[in-house]
Specification:
Blueprint lengths: L2 H16 L9 E3 L6 E3 H7 L2 E2 L3 H4 L4 H6 L2 H5 L1 E2 L6 E3 L2 E3 L2 H14 L15 H19 L1 H4 L5 H7 L14 E2 L16 E3 L8 E5 L2 E5 L20
Antiparallel strand pairs: 1-2, 3-4, 5-6, 7-10, 8-9, 9-10
Helix pairs in contact: 6-7, 7-9
The protein binds zinc ion.
């Protein structure tokens, strides 16, 4: 079975567990960034999307490459690819194209373990990092987390590359020193932390980046698979 088929199946299972009304629409999942429907054909034809751009992990150490594949080290998601208007701009390739052109291109060389001359993070860099943290949370916690209303402002921020829309943007941190890369035992990129308090944020760390997201304390549904259950080669 193709990877995109596996990804679609897991997302379907996750979506229907959270929103049973989608049970009668077997060919549809939801884009985590715009919440529009994404059809199975679209996923199979377009393939899956890396959360962290592939160029960001290309120069990983051999140890990291032995531990996990490129797909695993980037993290996977599905994003819509059909035309949509974003802040007055026509995104022909949907959220997928918008993420690639607005954020991935600019961040792709900042995510490795080399030394980086301290770049003053532009708003756009910060939004790109916040978006990756959000998609990482989607990969691990699924629709049950991202469909919470507190996350609306993160989605709105994705649509505004150059203007701060949410104070969560101020939580973004980027480490410039070499060897500050976050390592996990599995090679998967995202680490999460939170405390059991109703209003606590979700701390997300990956590569040389960190950010906080709203709604860090909620009930994770048990027995429902998310994309993190896949171990794609
Ligand atoms: Zn979308």
């Amino acid at each position: 079975m193709a990877l995109s088929d596996d990804v679609f199946s897991v997302l379907r299972e996750n979506l229907v567990a959270i929103k049973p009304d989608y049970g009668g629409r077997p060919d549809v999942v939801i884009c985590p960034l715009c919440l529009r429907d994404v059809h199975r054909d679209e996923v199979l034809a377009g393939g899956v999307e890396h959360i962290i751009p592939r160029d960001g992990v290309r120069r990983d150490s051999q140890d990291a490459k032995d531990l996990a594949t490129t797909n695993q080290r980037c993290g996977l998601t599905v994003l819509c690819r059909s035309v949509r208007g974003i802040a007055g701009y026509e995104a022909k390739q949907g959220c997928n194209g918008f993420k690639g052109s607005r954020y991935d291109w600019r961040l792709r060389l900042l995510l490795d373990d080399g030394a980086h001359a301290s770049p003053r993070l532009s708003t756009r860099h910060a939004v790109g990092i916040l978006t990756m943290a959000y998609l990482g949370a989607f990969q691990v916690f699924g629709y049950g987390y991202v469909l919470r209303p507190e996350l609306d402002e993160i989605r709105r921020q994705f649509e505004m590359p150059d203007r701060a829309e949410t104070y969560w943007l101020e939580s973004v941190q980027y480490a410039t020193s070499p060897s500050s890369l976050i390592a996990t035992a599995t090679g998967h990129p995202f680490l999460f932390g939170s405390i059991a308090r109703q209003e606590a944020p979700l701390h997300v760390a990956f590569r040389n980046c960190q950010a906080y997201l709203p709604g860090g304390h909620w009930q994770v549904p048990t027995g429902v698979r998310t994309l993190a259950a896949l171990s794609p080669r």
